Amino acid sequence: MVYYKEFFQEWAAHQVLRRPSMKQSEPAFYRRLEQALDVHREKGALIILKPRWDDSVIDFTSSDFLSLSRSGRIRNAFMEELGSLGDDWRLSASGSRTQYGNYDYLRQVEDEIAAFHNAETAWVCHSGFFANISVLEAVALPGDAIVWDELSHASTVVGLRVSVAAHKLSFQHNNPDALRDVLTRLKTDDPAFARGDRSVLICVESVYSMEGDICPLREMVAVAKEVFPTGNAQFIIDEAHSNGIIGPDGAGLVQMLGLENEIAIRVHMCSKALASTGGVILCNKTVRATLAHFSRCLTYSGAPSVPMVASIRAAYQLLSSGQTAKEQGQLQANVRYFFQALLEHPDWEEALDEGLLSVPLAEEWEERSVHSHVIPIKVRPSHEAHLFGHLLIANINAYPISYPTVPKGTALIRLVFHAHNTREDIDYLLNTIGAWAIEMLVIERGESKNTVPAAQRQFLALQANGWK
Ligand SMILES: Cc1ncc(COP(=O)(O)O)c(C=O)c1O
Fold first, then answer.
1. Domain extents for the chain?
2. Could you tell me the distance, in angstroms and rounded to a whole number, from the CA of residue 349 to the centre of ligand 1?
3. How far apart (Å, rounded) are the C-alpha atoms in residues 74 and 270?
4. C-alpha distances in angstroms, 129 versus 151, 154, 253, 268, 281?
5. Fold of 73-320
6. Residues in domain Aminotransferase class I/classII large (predicted)?
7. Does the beta carbon of 35 lie inside 6 Å of ligand 1?
8. Does domain 327-464 have CATH number 3.40.47.10?
9. What number does the ligand 1 atom closest to the CA of 208 have?
10. Which of 5, 272, 422, 447 matches a 20 to 30 Å C-alpha distance to 111?
11. 298 CA to middle of ligand 1, Å?
12. In whole angstroms, what is the distance from residue 329 CA to residue 308 CA?
């Protein structure tokens, strides 16, 4: 079955209400869960696991930004790394870091990663999500404050829940003045902050996972220093989307800006450009000791296994030896080509003028020296589902993002660019979105006998025909 039919069928099957057909004799626990899920099924908004990978679908979604997974390069590097360990390794760490599991190979790889990132120490853990929670669990002491960019990733939001910090305040996305206001309020309301007797942890991301924009980190650091000159305001930066992509050899935003000494904690993810899995916490020895003592996530959990650490080492060796430079350059070239072609496209011009679509990152794109691989196409709420269906039928995978992943009243199609995208892919993507926009404009102006977009009509016809 072609991918889009399989996807539609699976999605539709999961949106069917379950609670009404359940018998009263079934356990109340399951009836209550199905009822909670039905609330979302009713709106066609139940989150589902997507069917199989399919490389024949044009990829504007995956996290394989540098194509290391698809090309087999990470697999080969990983096999080589494992081979270099000979027979003298065990699969499992057989314990947590504070007990049996702090094995030499893991520590050696951490030292190499710390050196690559110009950091005092590196802590490898199971995932980036887990790393963010672990950091927030440990480093904010009772009475401290966590101040976070309002568009922070879900892992930061979950981390806030487990933290004992007394204050948890957000500030307007990427706005140094808004950060200053929040910091100043804390300082004015509680003299302990002004004295330096309480700390403020400021959570930001190098590249925001939905907006695709880059943090004005230098400006933010200047604001924190201005309001708290005693150094009790420190940054935690999530480098999920910059790792492998920007900075020297893909080392991230902090190193691109030379701010290693200004940022207390950097969290790098290995599940994206590095085509591996795991999180890396870069920090000094004081923070490392704090993690070991206060993070139950890190210390009451088995240490990463040897194969996982080997795959991370393999990825870092590709980065640090410059073997990913071609892909990094190709990715930047692809994004530049996209902006250029978009702004010259006649259908897009009309759609942008009519307010049907917007691409904030296309504004003044030529002024930026580096680009992120995430480019959101902003659409009106509910249009994201139509456009997603339209793209999928055209064999393009680019995910729709709705509330609550993005703020209420907003919606987008999240385009993710890769080294393996071709110019033909990008032209085809632009033409396909352009054709959808024109179709929507024609419907909106009442110039078509159809009031329902073609993709939705095709979906309904397939459903009526039993997905044949
Ligand atoms: C900004 C950001 N932080 C954290 C994560 C989680 O990283 P990982 O996949 O390593 O758990 C992601 C991945 O979705 C992300 O985009």
1. 1-52, 73-320, 327-464
2. 34
3. 12
4. 15, 8, 19, 10, 11
5. Aspartate Aminotransferase; domain 2 (3.40.640)
6. 57-433
7. no
8. no
9. 1
10. 272
11. 17
12. 27
